[in-house]
DNA sequence: GATGAATGAGGCTTCATTCAT
DNA sequence: AATGAATGAAGCCTCATTCAT
C-alpha cells in the first residue's frame, strides 16, 4: 500500500496542473528512494493516486518524467554561492550531513539505478574485496579503512563521470597533467591524518 | 547482427571449456559496453553463437554469469604491489592510460548499470549543467573545467560507494573527521596547479 | 483452433468483469478437461480471446486462476442438505448421473494433481472444506471425521478410476443398479461403529 | 546430492544390463517418492550415476521408463491369493500398514501424476491388469467387473486423499479400527447383489 | 480531463531430447 | 557401450504503452 503523495480528498476536482504535479512529486520520491529502473510506471501512478495512462499523456513516456524530475532539482542548493575558499568544506558538510538523510534526486537516481538486485550483492562484495581491502592493507596508520574508501570513491566516481560525460574535459586534457592531478587527489584521500 | 566473440567456423568441435569461455567472453564484452541490465541472455548467447540454455547450464543463471565475469577480472592488476608511497601515481596512471581504452568489467558494469539508456542523456546533461559547470564558474585560473570534473567525480563516487557498500566505513566514521577529510580531498581536486 | 468460451463478435466492449469471467470460464473448461499442468496460460488466454497478460493482471498468476476456479465450484451442490439417512443415495445419484458428463473442477484438478507444488495447498484446503468437513458436520457419533474421510476417498477414487479407465465397466453398467451399489458403499463408509 | 541407487565402484565395467537396471531402480525410487512429473530425466540419471542420454537410448523416452517401472511392479503382492472371503481384510491391512510406509510405484505415480498425458495409457492398462482384473477373477457371481471397479476406486481414492490431506484423520486414527472399517467398506464394494 | 481495460514485446528459465565423440 | 555438449521448444511473468470510453 503506497500512501498518496499529498493528501487530497477522494473526490477532488479535475485540475490538470495539480495532477501533473502530483505525478511529479511521486516520481521524485520513488526515483530518489529506489531508483529509476526499479520503479514501474504503475507504482508511480498508484502512489500519486492517478491513472497510469496520465504519465504518458503528460510526460510522453516514463523517460520524460525522469527528465522533468531531474531538471527541477537543485543538486547542491546554495552551495556554490559564498566564499570559494571554503567551498570544499561546504560541499563536504553537505555530503556528510545529508548522508544520514536523503540525497538529491539526481544523485540518488544515479546511484540507485545500479540497483538491479542481482548487481548489488555482486558489487558490494567485489568493491570491498577487489578495491577497498587491498588498498587498506597497503596503508599504515589509523583509519586505513576510511582512507581506502575515500580513494575507492574517487576511482569509481571517475569512471562514472567519464562515462556519463562522454568525451569531455578529462579525456581531452593533457594526460600527463591529468595523472599528476589525480595522483595528488588520491594521495590526499589516502593521507593518514585529517588535522 | 552480432559478431561472434571469436571467429571460428560454424562446424566447431564440442568443447565444454571453450564454449564456456566463449560465453564468458561475450558476456564480458556486452556487459562492459552496454551494462548488465541492458543485455539479455539471448543476446549473449547469440553473440557467443550458442544456445541460450547453455547460459543456465553453465552458470546457473544470468546472475551467475555476471558474478563470474566480475570475479575473474583483476580490477587494478598489480597496482597494489610496490612502494606504497607512489601508489597514488600508479593508480592515476592506470586510470588515465586506460581511460583511452576500456575500463575493467567491474567498473564498467557498475558504471553501465546506471545505464538505462533513458538515463544516459538525462544524466549527461544534468551532470554538466548542475554540477560541473556551476563548479567551474566559481573557480579561477586555468583548467577550471578539469578541476571541476575531478571534484564532481569525487562527489558522484562517494554517493555510489556509500550506497553499494551499505552502512560501512564512511557511515560509521566520526562525521566531523569525515567532513575534514572530504573537504581536504575536494580542495585538492579544485586546486589550480598540478605542479 | 480454440473456440471462444462465449460466442461474441470480436469488437466487444471493454468490460472488466466480463473479461475476468471469460478467462475464468475458459480456465475452468480447460482445467476440467485437460488438467492444470497440461494447460498453458497462453492457451487459456487464447481460448478466452484475450491477451495473456490479463491472466496475471486479474489473478496474479496461473495458480491464482486455479484457486479461483476451484473456490467457486460447489463440489456437491446442495447434496449435504436434507435427510442424512439418504445422504449416501443422494451422493451416489449425483456421481452416476454426472458420470455421463463431467467431473467438477476440484475433482478433476485433484485427480490431475500431478503433485504440482502449486496445487497441494489449494487442494488440501479445498478437499477439507468442500468435502470432508461438510460431510463431517452432517454425521452423528464418534469418529465422524474418519468416516467422512473414508467417504471422501471413495468419491475421489471413483472420479480417478472413471477417468483413467475410460468408458468401461462403471459407465456401461445400468445406472440404477450402480447408484444402488454406490449408495450402499458410501453408507458403509459413513456408518458409525466398526464393530 | 543424490546417493547412487546401488553402491558400485566408480570404475565399473560396461554392462548393458546392469546399467539398465540401475536406471530402472533409480526411476522407481524417485517416481515413487516424488511422482513422475516432478522428477526430471537428469535427476534420474544423476541418481543412477549414469549419463542422461542413456535413458533415451534404453527406454526410448522418459515415458518408456515409466512404463517399465510400472509394469514390473506388483501392486498388491500376494493379496489376491487365498480365501476370497477375507480378501477385503487383507487389502485393508495392506493399505493401512503400508500407509505408514510407502505406496507401490503404480499407486504413487498414479496419485501424483494422474494428469500427465504420457501416463494415461500406462495407467489405464495397468489399473486394469494389476487391480481390476485380478480382483474380478477372484469374485463369483454377476457383475464381478463392476464390483471390482468399485473396490479399485476405493483403493485408489484412499491413496489420493491420504496424500493430499497429509497427516490427518486417517493417519492418526487407531490402525486396528481403521482396518476394520476399510475392510467393511471393501467388502461392501465387492458384495454381489445390490438389492 | 481522466479512466482502466487491453495489448505486444520481451525477459529468464527448465526440460526432454539429439548429436558428435 | 557410454558420454556430455548442445539444442529447440515451451513455460510463466512483467512492463511500458495505447485504445475506447
TrEMBL record, chains A, B, C, D:
Residues 40-59 bind DNA. It holds the Pfam family TetR_N. PROSITE patterns: HTH_TETR_2 (PS50977). Keywords: DNA-binding. Residues 17-77 form the HTH tetR-type domain. It comes from the Bacteria. This is TetR/AcrR family transcriptional regulator. It comes from Nocardiopsis sediminis.
Amino acid at each position: 500500500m503506497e500512501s498518496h503523495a499529498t493528501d487530497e480528498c477522494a473526490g477532488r476536482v479535475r485540475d490538470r496542473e495539480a495532477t501533473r504535479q502530483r505525478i511529479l512529486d511521486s516520481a521524485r520520491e520513488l526515483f530518489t528512494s529506489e531508483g529509476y529502473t526499479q520503479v514501474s510506471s504503475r507504482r508511480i501512478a498508484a502512489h500519486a493516486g492517478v491513472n497510469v495512462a496520465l504519465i504518458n499523456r503528460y510526460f510522453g513516456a516514463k523517460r520524460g518524467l525522469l527528465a522533468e524530475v531531474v531538471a527541477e532539482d537543485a543538486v547542491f542548493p546554495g552551495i556554490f554561492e559564498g566564499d570559494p575558499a571554503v567551498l570544499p568544506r561546504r560541499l563536504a558538510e553537505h555530503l556528510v550531513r545529508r548522508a544520514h538523510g536523503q540525497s538529491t534526486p539526481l544523485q540518488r537516481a544515479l546511484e540507485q539505478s545500479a540497483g538491479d538486485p542481482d548487481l548489488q550483492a555482486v558489487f558490494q562484495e567485489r568493491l570491498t574485496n577487489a578495491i577497498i581491502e587491498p588498498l587498506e592493507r597497503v596503508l599504515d596508520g589509523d583509519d586505513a579503512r576510511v582512507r581506502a574508501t575515500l580513494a575507492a570513491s574517487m576511482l569509481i566516481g571517475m569512471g562514472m563521470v567519464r562515462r556519463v560525460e562522454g568525451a569531455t574535459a578529462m579525456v581531452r586534457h593533457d594526460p600527463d597533467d591529468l595523472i599528476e592531478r589525480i595522483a595528488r587527489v588520491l594521495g590526499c584521500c589516502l593521507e593518514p591524518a585529517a588535522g
